[in-house]
# Entry
Amino acid sequence: MFAQERQLTNNTTEERIQLLTTITNLTRLNVQLKQEKNEMSKNLGESDGWIYYKSNLYFLSSEKKSWTESRRDCTVRGADLIIINNREEQDFAFWKISAGVGQVWIGLTDSELEGRWKWVDGSTLTSGFWAGAEPGGKTSENCALTHGSGWDDYPCNDIFKCICEKRILN
# Structure
């Protein structure tokens, strides 16, 4: 009986040592991965005002410009105006990136054909986060912006800040 108890104690001790070794190795790996992520973020431009979120980088412009000028600024940065794919990204765009700024341009327009809203990548809008009775501007309001309660269509020549999006993984 005593030999069995000693064997059980030895087995338990060995298992503890193995678990502690595994924990130590995982902790080291975690530290290494955090360092690599920080380095990658710096290389991707986060230090220049870009914000990393869900495999993309986002940038809030500092200047107010027309929709077309804003888009041009984004493309110069290797990005384009933001394409909002879901509620989570909508909330991120407004509450995390542009909080306190007010309205900001997004990459949505119906300037080619009135009422057919398209994203800057050419894809057609299938569902959106329009505020109240929006879009309501007919032919005079062909570009979209986001704010706290959703999206509005607005004249493309008005000036606002914008959110650029740089896709890292396609």
In short: The two ends are 63 Å apart (CA to CA). The chain has a mean pLDDT of 86.
